[in-house]
Amino acid sequence: MDFTKHKPFSGFSVDDPDAARTFYAETLGFDVDQYDDMLWIKTHGDDGVLAYTKPDHEPALFTVLNLPVDDVDDAVDDLTARGVAFEHYDGDFKTDAKGIMRDSGPTIAWFRDPAGNVLSVIEAETLPD
What we know:
4-stranded mixed β-sheet
């Protein structure tokens, strides 16, 4: 068995494929293919993630998708203007008034999709190659 022959991908569940399609395509700007109750969200070229409908969906309690960006502040401003609300945390992952965590690892800001799953915009230059 050779798991390196094909590019792996991840997936996560949503409760409303139409709301998810609108969010990922219109709000975030991804190309999204829909196959019945499944979505293929093209994140980079033909690479992507699978979002599938699950009747008893519960939002993930962890980040399901990290979106590298050149500037987190610009991404937060742009997404906020599109109606995205950012999470605010205290403690180990303290965020500022905009919802951005700085100086405790990579610059990152978390938000949720319509199904309640956690996503992030993360500063690309702080990531390993």
